[in-house]
Every structure is written in structure tokens, then in C-alpha cells.
Amino acid sequence: MSIVGHLINGENRTDATRHQDIFNPSTGQVSNQLAIAGKATVEEAIEAANAAFPAWRATPPAKRARVMFRFKELLEQHADKIITLIGEEHGKISHDAQGELQRGIESVEYACGAPELLKGEHSRNVGPSIDSWSEFQPLGVVAGITPFNFPAMVPLWMYPMAIVCGNTFILKPSERDPSSTLFIAQLLEEAGLPPGVLNVVNGDKEAVDTLLHSPKIQAVSFVGSTPIAEYIYATASANGKRCQALGGAKNHAIVLPDADMDNAVNQLLGAAFGSSGERCMALSVAVTVGNAAGDALVAKMKQAMTGLKVGAHNDSSNDFGPVITKQHQEKVVGYINSAEEDGAKIVVDGRNPKIAGFSEGFFVGGTLIDNVTPEMISYKEEIFGPVLQVVRVESMQEAMNLIDAHEYGNGTCVFTRDGEAARYFSDHIQVGMVGINVPLPVPVAYHSFGGWKRSLFGDLHAYGPDSVRFYTKRKTITQRWPSTGVREGAEFAFPS
Amino acid sequence: MSIVGHLINGENRTDATRHQDIFNPSTGQVSNQLAIAGKATVEEAIEAANAAFPAWRATPPAKRARVMFRFKELLEQHADKIITLIGEEHGKISHDAQGELQRGIESVEYACGAPELLKGEHSRNVGPSIDSWSEFQPLGVVAGITPFNFPAMVPLWMYPMAIVCGNTFILKPSERDPSSTLFIAQLLEEAGLPPGVLNVVNGDKEAVDTLLHSPKIQAVSFVGSTPIAEYIYATASANGKRCQALGGAKNHAIVLPDADMDNAVNQLLGAAFGSSGERCMALSVAVTVGNAAGDALVAKMKQAMTGLKVGAHNDSSNDFGPVITKQHQEKVVGYINSAEEDGAKIVVDGRNPKIAGFSEGFFVGGTLIDNVTPEMISYKEEIFGPVLQVVRVESMQEAMNLIDAHEYGNGTCVFTRDGEAARYFSDHIQVGMVGINVPLPVPVAYHSFGGWKRSLFGDLHAYGPDSVRFYTKRKTITQRWPSTGVREGAEFAFPS
Amino acid sequence: MSIVGHLINGENRTDATRHQDIFNPSTGQVSNQLAIAGKATVEEAIEAANAAFPAWRATPPAKRARVMFRFKELLEQHADKIITLIGEEHGKISHDAQGELQRGIESVEYACGAPELLKGEHSRNVGPSIDSWSEFQPLGVVAGITPFNFPAMVPLWMYPMAIVCGNTFILKPSERDPSSTLFIAQLLEEAGLPPGVLNVVNGDKEAVDTLLHSPKIQAVSFVGSTPIAEYIYATASANGKRCQALGGAKNHAIVLPDADMDNAVNQLLGAAFGSSGERCMALSVAVTVGNAAGDALVAKMKQAMTGLKVGAHNDSSNDFGPVITKQHQEKVVGYINSAEEDGAKIVVDGRNPKIAGFSEGFFVGGTLIDNVTPEMISYKEEIFGPVLQVVRVESMQEAMNLIDAHEYGNGTCVFTRDGEAARYFSDHIQVGMVGINVPLPVPVAYHSFGGWKRSLFGDLHAYGPDSVRFYTKRKTITQRWPSTGVREGAEFAFPS
Amino acid sequence: MSIVGHLINGENRTDATRHQDIFNPSTGQVSNQLAIAGKATVEEAIEAANAAFPAWRATPPAKRARVMFRFKELLEQHADKIITLIGEEHGKISHDAQGELQRGIESVEYACGAPELLKGEHSRNVGPSIDSWSEFQPLGVVAGITPFNFPAMVPLWMYPMAIVCGNTFILKPSERDPSSTLFIAQLLEEAGLPPGVLNVVNGDKEAVDTLLHSPKIQAVSFVGSTPIAEYIYATASANGKRCQALGGAKNHAIVLPDADMDNAVNQLLGAAFGSSGERCMALSVAVTVGNAAGDALVAKMKQAMTGLKVGAHNDSSNDFGPVITKQHQEKVVGYINSAEEDGAKIVVDGRNPKIAGFSEGFFVGGTLIDNVTPEMISYKEEIFGPVLQVVRVESMQEAMNLIDAHEYGNGTCVFTRDGEAARYFSDHIQVGMVGINVPLPVPVAYHSFGGWKRSLFGDLHAYGPDSVRFYTKRKTITQRWPSTGVREGAEFAFPS
Asked: What start and end residues bound the annotated signal peptide (chains A, B, C, D) (predicted)?
């Protein structure tokens, strides 16, 4: 058993005010100890980032980008180790961890384009012989706080862009599965990043609050649950920082009668149960329009789920693995129980899966619940488990009203062949990421990720073009050179 | 004497919980009464804006832009009336009010380009036969809260862009000089804007707080002083809204020894005393490098100021007019007194200007103070009056350190002929708007306006390109059409 | 009868080497005389444009744009006169001329956004303390040569953008209907354009060749037939100029079995017969997939065409007017005859329309031809008349192969409800402008217009974003300021 | 001695109609034989490229970009071999070849950003429920014809962008030094490029004309001398292709009296003599303003040139190597002779350099000529050798007039400290690439490269943003879905 610590100013550190167990969710056993950083350690990291800023800011963007090119190479070379680290602490099956890593690498690829992305706008002759242009300069030290469910990908949404824009960074990862996160950060050092530009501190609320209140932290990116997102957003803002805080989700798919039902079922299998449903883009509610569509979907899904295989992370024939903790396992089962008590029909029951050789693992099997209604607690809240609920309605408008009435607005999808239905849906639905026959409409790395309503607080989305604007501040220069011997008249009026 | 009221749902209204005097600062007399809206009136405006939103959102951007084209025509036709209204309540001389209006019109011109500005990004084949694109959709109802010093221009920074992006708007103008603001809003109705899309409510903190706490308000733009900006930003953010809040300033010009001194003096005259210094971009501190430059600047400025003419708004031969209130006049004089007490030298004293025929007006004459030091209260705080202070230093770096140490970072300028000095300054100075021999480096309408440090809270600047992003939310659509008869395999792994 | 002449250096001129009749196509009578400019007159215009260039180039873009804002106002004020002038010389019905003018105005609206569109790209620190940026500077004198079918719109595609980018312009309009073109150019002068910036010369091949060979002409935009477009492109290029030359078209609509057939018929009526089919975007071939679709389309179209009304331009109840000349009338009828001889079926025959009171007008009635095959001359060539031909095929792929095999690739359309069919079509079809249920997919003014294959020669399309790049040349500046006293080492290696 | 051949459809080939000697310019000896492809071989390459197009076009841009990421890695791994190959056939010293390769790699880095660069523009609601967007689709097979002086870099300006945009490519490199070019192309295959996407054919005019006349070639990029550029541009255009053809140069630096003279001399040493002056961006004329500046420059330059070392490519202590051929050596010496005969003063004479051990090499030493005038043949023509000529004038305007009067307009530079002089120069000079104290203002890879006047034919510049537009064609889609049961009225008027 080893101690997972911090990366501060280029050094691996294990300072701790206390330690906390890290589990292997497949076995249910403690695998490592996490060093919990106190305020002093976090402040040291902030100091290191602050000290590293001037030189990094002055490094030309093309040279900063070249570190990202090398980082991409190293991530690809060390993919197997990263996938293993994710699996051991998160429980993700290797094909799924590979997908997560690939998405993270795509954000690094996008960061390699920094010289293009950082271009300002130049205007000749805004007035006679007066020019004006904008520069997008780095902010200084910025912080990222990331969740357990994508220990590789979500940090890679943040710091490659922040750093390539010229900032220095403090990352506070999840305390559940920090090892892959820390290892990846070490690879970036190996790629040639100067010490202090990226710092990783493991910790809890004390670490978070230190970041939120430090006058040296200019901006905060957060991904996690909505209540914490709200706290982060309000606190960072009250301290004068810019902030983007991504919260929870309850993503619905509408299944229209003209949908290719086999395709829809196949897509939903992955979208609902992949990664045990522990994704903020998991598709957890299917809204069927008309009972024929509802019956067909439930029947085909029930049949398809007979092939679903839940099990330990290290067997790649499994479709998905355990959930993150014992507590979370109980919470997910509790939601299934509540649905049953509220009158929904448990079509496929994953509450007591038997996983040979892993009896202590935190497993929940794939669960399908029919006849769910909007009043049920299992509908209102985010379950974050391998549970697909079916709500039956009579019209597409009724389905859209359901989605718009929900507090979250992260992702959604419609299954149809009809161009008009798809266009009406995508135009009007109050959700930030929309799929047309794409159940997990996660934007590619060169677009940006963000939900609406209570799924995101702030105005700029994560990664992609919006992240360039988030991690830079605009400076506008206006320039006129005095011509020799020409004496200009005073201008009292407002310049026009 | 008439009552200045509100514009709600296309109707002129005078609801009031109470009334407040509006003064003509040139005469010192009460000229009009302002109707102060209570919570119910503000909520009625919000309801009107909310009801107008769906139809306005569905109006094609090109048609929305055509309303702005007509608005521009009307603003030009009614320029004289607007200038008079500004002069009567703010005290601005006509040439200055004309400049303000012109700058406001330029923001309307920019809004006319909405169809271009609202384009999303389209990617063919983000995967095989999968496309993805972004749309920048309106937020809903948004609010603007604006200051007294530019009653025409600052509101025009906000609502033309917000509205042309498809939002509906509530404007809460300054209670000091609301008449030109209201008249301009009426012109936009005349230009063809549907009722309820733009609403104006006059009021005080009750009105502001109603806006900040209403769940129907999606975003808030504010321009005013820093303490209020902080309050607005923290409160709006705590309520989950996006917010941009622009605060105070203390804008320094560095005068290098190689500067064209006559040109610098002429530029500074307008930048320091124009509009009585009541501009967030007023140039209020000159930092001279080397005593030769300091002596030359003070001597030439003193000489130039003999021609400065302060007086009533309606005499266009005046250079600038009164300050906004009796209280503010006393505050400005208090800062001059404090500088004198702190040991600075009052080179030109504007404390008791005699304005024939306007003995009750709120006048302060142009004032030049030499030998100011950073410890003085008159240096630390924003005076917002016709006062230019000179600080003498020995090097450009010392001058830059002064600027970077100040809490504000709105605008700044360097006077020089030297390319290297200008580039070093513009690159490194911690200020958002930088002039090279341009003392009021207000970005043109097709760039964006914003300071750094405690001069702006938020991540997106006012007007120009940033305002498009501020007033819209990003939606990303990912689309794949199922091909007939092709049955795709389930995808459990994360999509890559 | 009056003489239609030129606009050179702000003066109306009637220089002529000879004169040519202008007809009113509705009456078949000569209405005006056109002054044909010889080489000397064209060279005078070029000189005027060349002399006007330096001052216009130095005028800030925002001021240039303001001339366009005023131009738009004047176009709207004088719409009735313009519509009448178009009708008298082209034969277009007022509602159609109004549509043409509106599209032209939209290009002027786009030109009003010049300050935004002309922004260059600025990069800080391309190397240590080295900056680089691009400017898009005007070319100098550029020329436009325009066709008869849109005497208002096509010139407005060209010169507003060319001029707002800082160029000066020579327009050589069609000799058939020059009056509206000339009148509109005069309005731009009235809007405040300095003399010489826009010049109009009427003429023939001598005028065109003078433009193509003048070393002072930097670029040529052309819209007309493909053989002339090829000549213009090759000749301008051989003279070292940049050139964009738009030629002919043969636009097909595919009607799939799932199309909303009533909608398709209604759309095709306007697209095939509007403006007598004298549009390069006219929809002249309907390709039906499956005989059921073919039968239904022909039957419904035949029925719908009973309400089609052809007649003189001044009766707004008419659907369309005469063709442009007696010769063209005979040519169109010749194509109908040839189709009949080749075995096609004339379902609706417009060869001898009786128009009461206009027996000498150049009329052809709406004509529907079924069972057309690709070998027929009427299929291969552009008819440019009110003739819709139906080709019947068995599959969508067969329909697409037909389109891709045709020499032209201007516009095309598919009628369907199916998302997959639409996406496959729009992705793969070798045509530059594609409609999904939009039979005239003319891009709006803020996109760009251009076909593929032999419908356009050059790399940049007309109007919209591409026109900014066409009418400007890129200048890239790289800047490093020497720091005092620092002596840099010689660099023999290639800079990196 | 080996045979340097072709790369066609992924295979190395040595087809030849005849063979031609390749020399090592340092030794003057034949080192290899070049296989000269005839028409049939070129057509085979075109067929291969044409066959590879559909699958490559359908490959998602992000996957195409990943081949470029791997290509960059391989270029860096094999840098030493590439540098050696360049040196052996071109004569470039290793530090210079390294610089060339690095610049080429930067264009590959830019190509890695293809997913971002290929984004189209999406407009929601161009009309009610009508959307429109643009796609930038590949052209098909495109060709590049490249010069001897940058055998690695100039091809890398072209095909990485062309290929990553989805095109397939035929490269015809210089016959003087093809080995590094061919080796690099093989690395791209190794990086995973499918066979046929990139093809290299070595040849002469027969190969070039086959490319220019093939209907399957959609576009041609050329870099070389101006007479050939004109031929390529006119011929490609007459065949309906798009073309960009870059030609010769005569780049002037203006040395103002306030310049940092030591810095200017150091910069000019590298810019005039680096790579033996065989660069289209070589700085070959220094224009001094005022005799003091002239005298100082010539004196300091003469002194500095005593340290200049010319010699064989494989000794990295040399500053520059031989010129490319015996014939070119004689031509350069001829220009020096003519200048002497025309009355110029040979200050430093490089006509007979003695290089120990390389008596047969094609060497010319660094040469400085003073008192050159615009009438001299050595001033008018491009020398392309290590010769710096000094022209003395009395004013900056006179210097600028000289530059503007020259037929070429590729690059230029001003040495000054004065902001106003720099801005006036960069704004007004009729040259496409401008340096402020940067004597070789080659734009970085994320800007674009191109001269003005007779230095470039076409409208789009090489590499960077312009190359994306050059290597793609715009498609604009307009989409409306018919709503169920709604029957729309016919539209005869032009749509508005």
C-alpha cells in the first residue's frame, strides 16, 4: 500500500494533515492511502504557481504548444498504465478507460493549436492612422476541481488549455481515484513543462476553500454535483474571481414511433449502463411517445440486457464495472427501491448481482424500470448508477415539456428518422447538448462542453473554443503615433 | 415640471412608490420628478419581457437587425433633442453629448451585423457520417443597470446587442439623468421593436434587488462604482445568473522624456477635464519620468489650462460643464483640499469657479496638482472630477509599478515615440485598455470594453464581440442519421 | 426616348462610339438608347478610379461603412422607382423586382459590417518579444461585369463589398437593362461616396477587353454564361489579375417518394417559372424517384399550372413576365420544340401565349415537359426560360449520378422528410449550393454564393465572407523592437 | 550512386524516360541520378491520387489530423538524416537545414489543427425555421511544384494542409535536390497515410504540363521564379483550375538614421548571406537614408563580414555553403561583375573564394556592393546569391518609392526605433510581408506567406489560414423541413 500525494513545484510530495483510504471498488478492499493537504500545503502550491507564472507567460505560445505535442506522445505511450490505474481505483473496464483517455488526449490535441486559438483581432485605421487590436493574455494562477468519474479526462479538459494559454495551474482531483490523475500530471512534467506550472494537491474542503479564498487564484473551473457547483460559483464570485461550475444532470432520450428501434436500443445500452451510469452525460431516462413505442422499447431492451455483463475492471469482457463506493452502491439501490415503492415496474432488476470472486465489490447490475412518472423521487434526482427509467407519454410536445421542466439541462437526445422533428427538438429544447440519434452527445474536443439551467453556472463552457476565452483576459490596445511637428488641437469632446 | 417614468410592455408609465428630484446641474435647480418603481412595477416589467421572449426569439436575426438599422436612423434624426436632454440633466456640453451619442450609435451599428455575429461553428464528420454544430441562442430576459455619466451611451452598449441576439431586456437607468435614456428607448419602439422586448424601469435599490433575485432574469450587465459592482456580481452569481459588472478606475498616463510634449498636453486636457472628469476612462493621473519631463508637462499644462472654459451645458463654447450633484461637487473639492493638506502643490485651482449667471450650478474648475504621492487619499481613490494629478518618478519601470499596484486597471496610456517602450508597456501593464499616445483608449464598437483587476468582475467584456457571447448561451448539437437496415453494435465504451 | 450613359468620376456622361436599342420586353418596343463606351471612355473611368483610390483607401472602414448605411436608406426610399426601371427594361413583375432589390439591399447591409469583417489576426509573441499580425488591404481598382437577369442585385453583390473594403470600382452592366443599375449607382453617390470611387460604363466587348487588359485593374468579378466566364477567367489570369467568374447552371431537384408533394409542387412553381426562369438558380429539372412520385408530381404540377399567369411587368397579378429579347424567346421555344422532337412529352405548352394588349411582347408561357432523358439537347443545355423538365429515375443514387454527370454544379435541391437522405445528398452531391426542401438555395447575404464545376471559375465565391477575401490582399507584418544596449548575435541559420 | 525516383500509390518507383545528374554542390561532383518521369508515369500518379480520394475525403478530419501528429514525431526523429540529405544535394550548412526543417515541421503542426480550421459557419433561422450552413469540402486531386532552395520546407507548406483538408496530392519537386523531399514523403506514408494520398513524381516540363492539362487536377500550388509562375498561373487558369503561383523577389531593407546600427548589421548578415542568398526572402538590398547611415552601415558591415565563413555543408562552423550549380555560380559572379562595370563599388569581394579541399565546389563568398543605383542590372534583377547591395537615398519617402517601383513585392524591412516611421512604412509599402527590425519577415506557420505585385499570382497566400480556403471548396446548404399538413403558398417572387 502506498501513499498518493501531491505534485508541487515539480516535486512529488506527501504532506498530509491526515490520510484517507482509497478503495479498489471491484474488490471492496483498501488499496492506497491518500495524503490530505492542509491549508499550508495548498498555499505553497499557489506560491509555486505564482512564481512560475512570469516566465511561463513570456514563453511564446508555439513553444508552450510544443510541450503539449510531447505530452500527447507520452499519454499514448503510457496508455496501458493509465488505464490500469483508472480501473483499480474507479472500477472502469479497460475499453471504457481507454475511451476516457482518448477523449482526454483529444483535448490535448486541441491545446496543440494554441497559436491559432490565441489570435487577437487587429483593426487598421479605427480612426485616421489609429490602429487597435486585442490580445488574449493569461490570467495568472487558476484552479481546477474535478470529480471521481473521469479521473483522467476531466482534468485534461482543464489544465492543457489553461496552461497552453500561459496560465499556471492548481489541480484538486477527486479523493476517490487520484492515482491516474497524478501520474498523468507527472507525464506533463516529463514532456518539458517547467516546475510550478502545473501543481496537483489532494485534499478536501479545506483545500477547496483555500483555493476559493486565495487572492492569487484568478479563476476556478469545477465539475461535480450541482449543490457543490452552486457553492463554488457563489463563493468564487463573491471573491471576485471568474468561475465556471458544472453540476448534475438527468438526461432524457425521446423515442419517437418512427425511430429505428434496434438502433435505439443498442445506443441506449451503452449510454445508460456504460461506466455504471456514473457519467454526467449518462442517458438515464427514456421517454417513449405512444404505447407502441414504449412496449417495443421495453421488450427489446429487456431482451438486450440479458447479454449485459457487470464485473471487475480487469476483465475486458465485462460491459461495466462496480460503482465508486459502498455508500454509493446503497444509494443507487435505494433509488431502485423507491421507484418500486412508488409504483414503477422493475423490468430488469440489478440490485443483487453475483460476481464470482468479487463478493465484496460495489456492484449494481443493469436495471430497467418502466412506468416511471415525474413525481417519483427516482425521476427527480440524479441516480448516477446503471439504471434506465422509462417514462411513457402521448406526444413529442409532452416529452419536451418534461425535459424542460426538469431542473437540469445537460444532455438530451431524440431517436427519429424525421428531419422536421429533429430540427424542432434541437432548436427548442432547453438543454445545452443535444443529440439526434446520438445518445451521448458529448461535443468533440474542438467544440465546447456545457449544460443549461442548473447543470452549469457561468457563461463559458468547458474545453474547446470557450475555454480559450475563459482562461484569458482581453486587453485592447489603441495606438496613434504622433507625426513630427504636427500639433493637434485639444479634444474636449468625447472622441468619435 | 414633468414626471419621468417607465416604459413597460410598450407603454409609458408613471407608477411610483415615491418621487425623487431631478436637477439641472448647470442651474442647481430641480427640473423634473422621477417616478421610483417599487417591486411590483419591476415584476410587471419582468413579466412583460418574459411574455415577449418566445416570439422575439423566433424572429430571424436578420429581421431583428433591421429594427436596429431603423433605430440608427432615428437616433441620427433626433440627435439634437437627445443632446439637449443629456445637457439639461447631466450638464454635458453639446459637443461632448454629441460625442457620447455618436459612440452609442456605433454600438447600434455593430448590432446591425447580428446575422454575421451569431454564426455558430459547423463540423462535418466529427465521426463517420456524424456532424456537430453550435448555436448561440438567446438567454431570455436580461437586465442592465447603468450609471449617470453616460445616460445615452452606456445603455446603448447593452440592450442593442442583447436584443438583437434575441433576448428581451429590462433597463434600470441612473436616477440622476433618466430623460435621454427613456427617450432613446421610445425611439427603439418607434423603429419597430415589439412591445415588451425593451422595458425601462426607473428606481432605486428595491428595483435593483428585485432584478437580482428574480429567477426569470438570466443575466445582469452593470456599469457603476466598484463597491456596487462587487455587490451586483456576488448577488447575481449567488442567484445562479451570469453577470458582468464594471466598476471604478484611476487611469494613469506615463509621460516619457521623448514624448511630443505639446501633443501630450493637448491630449491630456481633453482626457482629464472633458465631461468634468466624470468618465470611467478619464485620465486623472500623469506620471512623468524624470524631472525634466515633469517640469515641462506641468508648465505647459498650466499654460494650456488658462484657456479652459467651464460653464453651463447650453453654451457650446464651454469646454466642460458642472458635476452631477451638489454632494459630488463637495466631494471633489474635498479631494483637492486633502491633496493640499497632504503636501501636494495645487498648480491650478478650480475650487471656486465663478460662472456668470449660474451661481447655483455644481461647478468645479479644471485643477492641476503637482507632487502627488501614492500615499495620498486623492491618489488612492477615484475623484471623478476635473482634477489632474501629477506624480513624478525616475524610471518607466517605477511608473509601471505604480499602475500595477493600484487596485483599478481600467485604462492607461503612454506618451512616447519609441516603439520598444510602447510595446513593453502594452504587453506588461496590468490594465485592460491601453493607449499608445491615446489618452482615452476606449475601444471602438467592434472591439470590446473592459478593465482588469477591480475595474471589472466577470470574464466577458462589454459590447463588441464579447457581448455576443455574454448575451447568448451555447448549444451544441451532434447528429447521426441511422441508415436503413444497418444495425449498429452496442457501444459500452466511452465514444471516441 | 432618352440616352442611358455612364457615371464617371461622379459625372453623368453619354460618350458613345455608337448607340444600341434598349427594349421594353413586355411591349416589344424600343424604349431607350444605350451609349456604348469606347476604349478611351473606359480608360478615363479607370483613371478616375485610380485617382480616387488613395484617399478612399485612407478613409477608415467605419466611415466607409457609414456611406453604406445611408445607401441602404436611399435604396429603400427609392424602391418604387427602381422596381419600375427593372420592370420596363427587364420585364420582371413588381413583386419579383421587389424581391431582387431586397436581396441586393441585404448585400449592402452586410457591407455595413465592414469594420468587423476587415479585422486581421494578431499574434503576440510569435517569438520572444516578436509580434505578428495580418492586415487585409484593398487591391486598388477592381471591375465588375454583370448580366441582364438581375440588373439591381448582381451589381450589389459586388461593388458595396469591394468599395467598403477600400477599393474603387468600374462596373460594366448588361446592355439590355442598364437603367436601374445606373440609377442605383447614382444613389450611392448621393449617399456620400466621393466621385470616382464607383464608376459605371456601358459598353460591349471593347469595354470588357479594355478592363481585362488594363494593368491598373487588379481584379475582375463576372457573372454571366459559362463560355464568357471562361474567357474572362483565362484572359484576366493571363494578365496576372485575380478573377472570379460565375457561369451557367442546370439546377435539378430530386423528388423522393416521401416528399410532401403539395409543398414540392408549390415550391417548384416559383422556382421553375418565377422571373421566366431567367435565373442562374432557376430549378429547371425535376428528377422523380419511382414512377409513383413521377406521376403524382406531373399530375399536381399540371393542375397547379392552370393558375399560372404570364403577362406584362406592370400588372402585379401576373406571376411572371416576358423573356429578355425576341431572339431569346425564339431560342427558348426552340428548346421546347427539340424536346418534343426528341420524344419528350409536352404536358403544358407555353409556346404561344396570348397576352391581351401585348401581342409584340417577348412572352413564353410556363411549360412542363415529362419523360425527358439525359441525351436530349434540352436537358444538356441551359434554357433560361419558363420550362420545367421532368426526368424519371428509379433510385436516389441514379438521380445523384445524373446531377454529378452534368457539366454545371450551381444549385440543387432534394424534397424529402428523411434526415438520412438529406444528409447523404448534401454531403456528397457535387454542387455548390444545396437545398433541403428549398428549391432556390441562394445563400443569404452573410454566406457566399458560388457553384462548382463549370458554374464558377476561381476559388472564392461571390458576396458574403468570401468577397472580403477576394477584394483585399493580405499583408503580414512581423515586428521586433531592438532593446537598448542589447547587441544580438548574427543569425545565419534560418530563423526558427 | 543511386537512382532517385518517385512515390506512386505507396510504392517507390524508378520509371524514367531519361536520367539526369544530381550534384553535390560542395564538391562539384555528381552524387546521384534522377529518374525523369514521362507523361504516362505522371498520369499513373494522378490516377492513384484520384482513386484514393473518396476514402480519404470520407475519413473524419480528426483522424486525418492524427496522421499529421505522427508525421511530426517522425520528422523530429529523422531530423539528422533529413539535414544530411539537404546538405549533400543543396549545400546548406546543418544549422541552416535544421532551421528549414523546423519551419516545415511548424506547417505540419498547423495542419494538426485541421478539425478547428475546417469549421463551417452555421446560421439558425436565416428565415422562419430555415437554417443555412457552409462546409469546406476537399477539391479532389491537387498538385504542387516546388523549387530547389527549400527542398524540405516548401513542399511541407503545401501537402500537409492539402491532405489534412481531405485532398490527395501530386508533388513535383525540384530536380536539383529531390532526395530529402522524397524521404520526407516516405515518412508520411510511415505515419499511416493511405497509399495514393501523397504521390511524388520527379520530372521536367513534360511532367509539369501533364499536371497543368489534366482535367483531374483541381488546383495547382507553385513556388519558383516569376516567369515560370506566370506560365503556371495562366496555363492552369486557362484550364479552369484554381492556382496560386509564387515567384521572385528583390527584398529591400530601409536603414533609418535612428536604427540600432549594430543590431541592423547583425540582422543583415544572416538575412543577406544565410543560405548563400538563395531564398525568396533574402534581404539583398539595403537602402540607407542619409550618408551618415550609409557610411556607418557599410563600415560596420565590412568589418562584420571579415568573420563570415563560406564552405562545405558538412562543417557546421561555416556560415553558408555553395550555390546550387556551376551555372548559377557563374550567373551570380556575372551580376557582381556587371555592378562593378556599372560603377558600383565592390566593398567586399566574394568572387574567388578559396575553400580548402573543395576546389570544385560552387562557391561564391559574401559580397558587399556600395553605391548601387536603380538603373543597374544587378539592382533590377534577382541575383539569388550571397550579395548585399547598398543604395543610398536622402529620405524615407525616396526609399519607399524605390521599393514600390520595383516589379517584385515579396518582403521588406525597416530598421528604426521610431513607432511612427514603422507604422507609416508598414501601412503604405506595396509589399506583402513586412518586417519592423525583422529582416526576414517570413510569417509564422499560423499566418500565411505571400508577396504582392509580380511576386505572387492568385488571391490566396501559401500555408496558414489562406491555405485552408485554397485547398477546399465552399458548399452552402439551406434547409427547411416541411411541417406536417401545412401547405405553403407558391412563391413566384424572388425569395426574401
From this structure: none
pLDDT in tens, B371-417: 999 999 999 999 999 999 999 999 999 999 999 999 999 999 999 98
Q: Is A313 on the interface with B (CB under 8 A)?
A: no
Measured in angstroms, the CA of B270 and the nearest CA of chain A are apart by: 4
Answer yes or no: are the C-beta atoms of A289 and A321 closer than 8 Å: no
| Nearest CB to B116 within list C72, C113, C420 | C113
Of A235, A234, A304, A233, whose CA–CA distance to A268 is shortest? A304
The strand order across the sheet containing D11-13 reads: D11-13, D6-8, D198-200, D168-172, D141-145, D217-223, D242-246, D456-457
The CATH class of A251-436 is alpha beta
Q: What angle do CA A218, A223, A226 make, to 5 degrees?
A: 110
Give just the sign of the alpha carbon dihedral C374, C380, C382, C384.
Answer: negative
Kindly state the cell numbers that stand for C332. 427558348
Q: Please answer yes or no on whether B417 and D416 come within 8 Å at the CB atom.
A: no
Query: Within 10 Å of residue B47's Cβ, how many Cβ atoms?
Result: 17
Q: Which of residues 379-418 of A touch B (CB under 8 A)?
A: 417
Chain B CB contacts of C479 below 8 Å: 419, 423
Q: Quick one: which of C356, C121, C168, C145 has its CA closest to C232?
A: C145
C-alpha A332/C-alpha A378 separation (Å) is 9
Amino acid D39 reads K
Q: In b/e form, how buried is each residue of C273-296, taking b as 16+ CB within 10 angstroms?
A: bbbbbbbbbbbbbbbbbbeebbeb
> What number is the ipTM of this complex?
0.95
Hey, is the C-beta of A129 within 8 angstroms of any chain D C-beta?
Answer: yes
B484 touches chain C (CB under 8 A): yes
Could you tell me where the DSSP H helices lie in C193-351?
A: 205-213, 226-238, 261-273, 291-305, 326-341
Q: B64, B119, B125, B415: best mutation site toward chain D, by most D Cβ within 10 Å?
A: B125
CA gap D190, D170 in Å, rounded: 18
Catalytic residue among A165, A243, A280, A413: A280
Of D410, D172, D428, D212, nearest to C237 by C-alpha is D212
What's the fold here for domain D3-247+455-477? Aldehyde Dehydrogenase; Chain A, domain 1 (3.40.605)
Listed in order, the ranges of chain D carrying CATH 3.40.605.10 are 3-247+455-477
SS3 B363: coil
Cα gap A325→A308, rounded to integer Å = 21
Q: Quick check: C440 pLDDT over 60?
A: yes
Beta-bridged to residue C222, according to DSSP, are C145, C245
Map residue B1 onto helix, strand or coil: coil
CB neighbours of residue A54 within 10 Å? 11
Tell me whether residues D432 and C492 touch, CB distance under 8 A: no
Give the residue from C403, C429, D475, D63 showing the smallest Cα distance to B130.
D63
Task: Say if the Cβ atoms of A491 and B242 lie within 8 Å.
Answer: no
Q: Is B340 exposed, middle or buried (0-12, 13-18, 19+ CB in 10 A)?
A: middle
d(CA C464, CA C466): 6
Specify the residue for cell string 474603387: C168
| C492 pLDDT tier (thresholds 50, 70, 90) | very low
Question: Which residues from B are below 8 Å from C427, CB to CB?
Answer: 124, 129
> Is residue B280 flagged as an active site residue?
yes
Residue A485 has a pLDDT of 28
Interface test with C, best of A59, A124, A477, A496 (most C CBs within 10 A): A124
As annotated, the residues of chain B forming the CATH 3.40.309.10 domain(s) are 251-436
Residue D484 has a pLDDT of: 60
Q: What percentage of chain B reaches a pLDDT higher than 70?
A: 97
Angle B454-B457-B458 from CA coordinates, rounded to 5°: 150
